[in-house]
Amino acid sequence: MLKFATGIFASKNLRVKNSFENIINIKELLCCVEEKKKKVGVGFGVMILKDNKVLLGKRHEDPEKASSLLNGAGTWTMPGGKLHFGETFEEGARRETMEETGIKLRNVKVICVNNDMVETAHFVTIGLFSDDFEGEPQVLEPDEITEWRWFDLNELPNPIYFPSAKVLENYKNKKFYIPH
């Protein structure tokens, strides 16, 4: 523990002695440990369009099952997820779309980048687009998504998961990035 604490405190210019006489400020220790844990994640949402309708899935009402660091229980969302190490954005989009919906994307392209933050998480979300695909949506992860539906772009449901809403906003406004 002493080596661990000494390493953490070295960057903060704090002294740690090998003695029980000196009490380490627990608040400082926790602050430093939390700083080390905070990382920006990379995720993506895939806008699949068919006849001017976008595919959205209903996230589970139970926050534990909605499975996202950005929350979003009970909202409508695009297929998507976290980028895996060594994966291109397009590969990730194809993988997650197939895992979640059974749809095979043929052509997919990056359309936007968003900076999505809540108190407990921070993600750079890559928005991707495809209107070239095979298959019909199926609920393949019922603990996370309870149904998939096509919605007219002018008649979207509420509430929409905020990273998906930002991808839709960028698409409609022909913007690559809208500041947070």
Write the layout of secondary structure elements.
Blueprint: H1 2-10, H2 26-37, E1 41-50, E2 53-59, H3 63-66, E3 76-77, E4 80-82, H4 89-101, E5 104-118, E6 121-134, E7 145-152, H5 162-172
Parallel strand pairs: 1-6
Antiparallel strand pairs: 1-2, 1-4, 2-3, 2-7, 5-6
- Tell me the CATH architecture of the largest domain: Alpha-Beta Complex
The tally of helices reads 5
**How many individual domains?**
2
Mean pLDDT, all residues: 84
Structural class: alpha+beta
Largest sheet: 7 strands, mixed
Coarse morphology: globular
Radius of gyration: 21 Å
Roughly what fraction of the amino acids lie in strands? Answer: 25-35%
Residue share in helix = 25-40%
CATH class group of the largest domain = Alpha Beta
